[in-house]
Amino acid sequence: QVQLQESGPGLVKPSQTLSLTCTVSGGSITTDNYYWSWIRQPPGKGLEWIGHISYSGSTYYRSFFKSRTSISRDTSKNQFTLQLSSVTPEDTAVYFCASRVGGPTIATRMTPRRLDFGSWGQGTQVTVSS
Length: 130
Hints:
Low-confidence stretches: none
Number of helices: 2
Mean pLDDT: 97
Radius of gyration: 14 Å
Order of helices and strands: EEEEEEHEEEHEE
Structural class: mainly beta
Largest sheet: 7 strands, mixed
Distance between the termini: 39 Å
Number of strands: 11
């Protein structure tokens, strides 16, 4: 089973760009039909799916985040990265990377659940504050 680990700064100032990296071990991010997602959980709220990058490098973002989100990958390092621009305090959350076989369904994209993904990182707290 693949293992995922998030890394990045825990504090970001408003209007700046949040950048997080997910390092994958135990499997390749180019393995056929694997999808690599970023998901977050704001304090007191449920999980929010942000977007994914596929095994082939294609990306898909939830419309709410699309205008200020970019997910990319470095296959040589077996990593994928989230960039969320123009952050506000409302972007304060625990950010997770997760993987699954097959693209997430519409239901999963709208209301993700832990069981919808085969592997999760432990999560990293990101606070947006000046």
